Amino acid sequence: MVTPVNPQPLDRASLPRRLASALPEGVRVRVLRAVYGDPRAAAELVPLLTDRQAAGLDPLPTEPAELAPSLLRAHRAEIRLLPDDTRLLLLLAAADQYPVATHAFLRAVTAARLDTRPLEAAEVAGIAHAGAGGVVFRDAWTRIAAYESGSAADRRDVHRLLARVLRGDVETPCRSWHRGAGALGPSGRLAGELRTAGARARETGQPTLARVLLERAAELSPDPSEQARLLARAATDAWQAGDGDRARRLAAATDDHTLTGLIALRAGNATEAFDALLTAGVQQERGNGSADGREVTRENSAPDASAPAAHLFARAAEAAIYTGDLRRCREAARIAERTGIVVPGTLGGLAAAFEGRYEDARDLLEAAAGRCGPGGDPTLLVHAGIAALLLGDHTRAATATVRAAASARALGATVTVAQALEFRAYADFWTGRPQAGAATAADALRQAHATGQDNGACHLQAALAMFAAITGDADTCRERAAAARSYALARGLGLPAALAQWALAFLDLTSGRFAAAAARLRALAGFGPGHGHRAIRHLATPHYVEAAVRTGDTRIARGAHADYHRWATVVRSPDDLALSARCHALLAPGAEAVEHYRTALDLHAHGTRDFERARTELLFGGALRRLRSRTEARDRLNSALEAFEHFGAPHCAAQARAELRALGAPASPAHGVTEHPTTRLTAQQLLVARMAAEGATNREIAARLALSPRTIDHHLRGVFARLGIRSRIDLVRLLAEEDSS
């Protein structure tokens, strides 16, 4: 198949202002993909888009004549100036490459005893040249123009010629394609041949080839009902191959619940996706008389009108996960159990967990997480990764999601690759790999945009907001989180909405804005389906407890921790138990906290969340400082500082340095780094200074820190004296310099 050029960053100088700035990021990427990366074609296409297409609500055009008509006309006129023999060779080469790459040009030339010397005229004109494997066109649009410049009769003739020279068994689908392209009119026999060839292409991991074959089969089929079925399958193959715009256009010509649900799951309203997929699953089960209880296998990993009910319920589970709708999660689990359909344990596990049946949830999730072997079905591997994340097993989660992406690539299921990487981001976050995680998430974001998976892109935006929070990039965090929440709230996507809120809360927590962090985290589940997510609130409980303790409002935090501890005890995750012990320490008075911190660090030693281990050491070091255990406090704080510098988490590193300064043992600056003036401040002074620089009045700062305005005034006078400044304007400048350094 012709492979579109990978989307490249847009050249703002060469494109209309509307494309360079006004169009959503996803639409910009899809535009460039649709026009094979050609900025001239992109510049022509953008003014032709409707308002709904420009907003990403309707699919983009897919036919060349709709994408760049003027550019195509100019190329066709250029080709028509060439000699007839040259144009015939270019037509033959183009038919061999577009829209299916069959690599039969040289064999066809030999079989027809054609002279290739006329290609010199095309080379002189700069249109194409002869290469080792055939003809190399100047660009994709020249190739398309060469094909469209031929008459209908000439095109049929070259397709028939190519079909004759394609003889090997592996070339059967391509031979069928050329036979179908050379047909004069409707033919049930050829339609059947193309349908069979399409099924074979799908089985061999070539969904794009399958889509082309089935589209042509639909054109040749004399049976309208068969045409609809073929188009539905073609739409599914287009979606699996990552051609979201074509999939949506083809789906519009069908009335298929599965297609509607699949596309809505990744590019529409997740609640509507759940309803459509659940309906399709029930209909499929009833149509089969009995769902035989088998989970979907690799051979049927691309759902279509004949997808097993188990696979459709698995997709419905994903929709429930994205929305955070407990009621729908329970509904799907009940229907699956009543009908005897076995689906990945993620669905039942979530339902059980939300109902507080933690032992049942653990068993179901453990069964799902165990299906993470290499070469498996990518959907089941994604579910295995989600289950492992919920169990706190981030090593297995990373393995499952990486294998899901690899399996999807092997099957040609481009659309699943980005989805697998969405959940890989959580493992990267927990295990303290913000730079690597952000790079992976950014790459997945481009893939999600290019393939029309706007919901997945929203989830990845939220993940990138979290990585930005870890690395202290406040502006990027807020920008990413705002984009994710705006889109998520419009589409009922509770998961990315909650993750974005968590990212903002973590930024507040590591910047000393404890009341704001506590308020954000307390509200995560209270927003309801499509706005918040109980799973995210659960995962964020240790951060909530920390923020709540800092503000002195621990009543709700104690209840949240009790539930978190019960789950950690059931699943026996060393990291979850470590974080629960840290929460115990934070909520315990004075010296009683020390043993809880020691327990937490012992448990961290058996886990994988190195970043949270460093935060535990930071909190422990602060507690030891207040208890005047200076030597151990210094050791713990220096260990935390070293870890934060390794992770690239400057806000957390700043907290560790502030604690060391308060201890009277300021940390040495990193090699080659000049110490900033703010390192002269105590932890409390730095906290007050940051609030003041953000515009808070003395009274507001006092209220947030539970101190008197007179105390805040005293702290600010000390800040100004230590920094050698006289005004809040100078303070804003100094802190901005520190954040940008």
Can you walk me through this structure?
The structure is a single chain. Helix 23 packs parallel to helix 25, helix 25 (414-430) runs parallel beside helix 27 (454-470) and helix 29 (494-510) packs antiparallel against helix 30 (514-522). This protein is an all-alpha fold and 741 residues long. Mean pLDDT is 85; it is low at 1-16 and 289-306. It is elongated, with a radius of gyration of 30 Å. Among the domains are: 17-67, no CATH class; 262-475, Serine Threonine Protein Phosphatase 5, Tetratricopeptide repeat; 676-741, Winged helix-like DNA-binding domain superfamily/Winged helix DNA-binding domain (Arc Repressor Mutant, subunit A, Orthogonal Bundle), CATH 1.10.10.
